[in-house]
Design goal:
CATH superfamily: Autotransporter beta-domain
CATH architecture: Beta Barrel
Shape: globular
CATH topology: Lipocalin
CATH class: Mainly Beta
Number of helices: 1
Number of domains: 1
Helix content: under 10%
Radius of gyration: 18 Å
Strand content: over 45%
Strand order of the largest sheet: 1-2-3-5-6-7-8-9-10-11-12-13
Length: 258
């Protein structure tokens, strides 16, 4: 499955679509995903602009730029369909007296999110959602897993009041018969009508590289009622893994008349 025609079709549908419906929460930014799904027949595009990752390993310094994309389509009820990937990536590798760069596309994933919902009462607001994904090994050599990967994740969200939002994200990836685990709490706060900021910690057990611990945070700014800009950064504070991850993104919701 190649992501380019899927993205092209999604953009065409969004431009041809009728009036907006009420917007849902976006999955970007931060660990995990929103505990709500899109209304039936609506679509959202969430696009990295791009993500930057730096990692030093075995005497090499790698810098990777990834234009990650996520398309969400409401199926009705508590379900939505998702397709994601990265149509453009760039790798810059330096070390051992040599330099190398590569450009290509990454793997494509498809999944279904289920959001049963929960209490929305102020001071007692809890909701949760689960997401099952399959990632196909169709990316270029430098940007793909090399095998099909299965993922299952869940996000729980607590809203003690209208301005605070805390989440806990847990996920397992199964690749080549081995499991990698992620557990990530986030603590968010709204500032006025348009701004949101959050702190995040990611504890990861990678089947190949061992334990990783990242910490950081980000901000999101709402543009009107149907678009959002975001920025985030994570820094390694223990174990293996990237020494720095950062990115910018934009999310847009495309709805329909009620």
């Amino acid at each position: 499955m190649n992501l380019r025609p899927v993205l092209t079709a999604a953009l065409f549908l969004s431009l041809a679509g009728p009036a907006f419906a009420d917007p849902p929460d976006f999955d970007r930014p931060g660990a995990g995903f929103a505990t709500s799904v899109l209304p039936a027949g609506t679509l959202a595009l969430e696009q990295g602009l791009p993500t930057y990752e730096r990692q030093r390993q075995d005497g090499y310094l790698d810098r990777t730029y990834t234009a990650d994309s996520l398309i969400r389509i409401g199926l009705g009820g508590p379900a939505e369909f998702q397709v994601g990937g990265s149509a453009w990536n760039r790798l810059e590798e330096r070390g051992m007296g040599s330099r190398r760069h590569a450009v290509g596309h990454g793997d494509t994933n498809v999944g279904v999110k289920i959001a049963p919902g929960g209490s929305s009462d102020s001071g007692n607001g809890f909701s949760w959602a689960a997401l099952a994904n399959v990632t196909f090994a169709n990316g270029d050599e430098d940007f793909g897993n090399g095998a099909k990967q299965y993922s299952l994740g869940a996000t729980g969200q607590w809203q003690p009041d209208d301005n605070h939002q805390n989440t806990l994200y847990a996920n397992v990836d199964r690749l080549k018969g081995r499991n990698s685990w992620t557990l990530a709490p986030t603590f968010g706060r709204k500032f006025g009508e348009n701004w949101m900021a959050y702190l995040e910690a990611d504890a990861i057990h990678d089947a190949d590289d061992g334990n990783e611990l990242q910490a950081g945070g980000g901000v999101a700014y709402s543009i009107g009622d149907h678009a959002q800009l975001d920025a985030y950064a994570l820094h390694r504070i223990g174990g293996h893994g990237p020494s720095f991850i950062g990115g910018l993104g934009i999310s847009v919701f495309f709805g329909k008349k009620a």
